[in-house]
Design a protein that fits this description.
The chain has helices at residues 4-20, 58-61, 123-138, 143-163, 166-188, 206-209, 211-221, 225-240, 249-259; strands at residues 24-30, 47-53, 74-80, 84-89, 94-100, 113-117. With 261 residues, it is of the alpha+beta class. It has two domains: 4-138, Beta Polymerase, domain 2 (2-Layer Sandwich); 143-259. The chain has a six-stranded mixed beta sheet with strand order 3-4-5-2-1-6, with helices on both faces. β4 and β5 form a beta hairpin.
């Protein structure tokens, strides 16, 4: 369990490590690690952040993680892609971070964020402004299109499950269809989304804004793959179709007929 004191201790040590490491010029604390997200911290909160290198030095510096705090308590580090990293401490606390120069983060998005370290040119602050602008664009839903994709993902997913591709088909059902259904609900009932929502990942804290529907979707995922798909299909119609002329009712009927539902 990560206590509040431990979280703050790691934050201070992380800031010091970035400042002391030659070649590092910035640190952007994200999500619950930021000042804006501090009120949401609990024992499961991780440290999410961007660590910025001098321009062009990302590939040179990335192999070195000695600037991370509490080196003696690290039990695991791993890479996620070219610039993504994770670190786990002996108390189970997690760091998730991108480690690169600003140019390599040109497509990054950020909402709640705090500039903890910056250079004289304000590179980290500029990255934050650009990332927030991209997040604002991403935080827009098209429920008319999203609900159509829900039907497609369920149709493909069930077909693959019936073919014997249970893992792949299950991903279409449990991952892609669910994400799109959540997006469609948030777009269709935008006024119900509160400030608790995550503007980058619409699935985050969905249950806080839509507790009944969140519980029903979660219950559907406890079912075997095809049963889960059929329940998600029914929820899609029950939640979104009534009173909405944009709902693709004819297409939904075709999907149901094709799958024998």
């Amino acid at each position: 369990m990560t206590t509040s004191a431990r979280f703050e201790e790691l934050s201070r040590a992380l800031i010091a490590g970035v400042r002391e490491r030659e070649g590092l010029i910035g640190l952007l604390m994200l999500g619950s690690a930021s000042d804006e997200g501090a009120a949401r911290r609990d024992e499961w909160s991780d440290h999410d952040f961007f660590a910025l290198t001098e321009a062009g030095r990302g590939s040179e510096i990335r192999p070195d993680l000695s600037w991370l705090p509490d080196q003696g308590r690290l039990v695991l580090t791993a890479r996620e892609g070219e610039i993504g990293f994770v670190a786990v401490y002996d108390d189970g606390h997690v760091f998730e971070f991108a480690f690169s120069d600003a140019a390599e983060l040109s497509s990054a998005v950020a909402a709640e964020a705090t500039v903890a370290v910056d250079d004289a040119a304000g590179t980290t602050a500029a990255l934050l402004a650009e990332s927030r602008a991209r997040a604002a664009v991403a935080d827009r839903f098209d429920p008319r299109n999203d609900v159509r994709l829900v039907l497609v993902k369920l149709l493909i997913g069930v077909g693959r499950v019936r073919r014997g591709e249970v893992l792949n088909g299950g991903a279409f059902i449990r991952q892609w269809a669910v994400q799109l259904l959540v997006r469609a609900i948030r777009g269709r009932f935008a006024e119900a989304s509160t400030s608790l929502r995550d503007s980058i990942d619409p699935v985050r804290r969905f249950e806080r804004d839509f507790p009944e529907w969140g519980a029903q979707i979660a219950a559907a995922l406890d079912l075997p793959p095809e049963a889960a798909a059929q329940r998600l299909f029914r929820l899609t119609r029950e939640i979104l179709e009534p009173g909405w002329t944009e709902f693709p009712s004819s297409a939904a009927d075709v999907v149901a007929a094709r799958l024998g539902w």
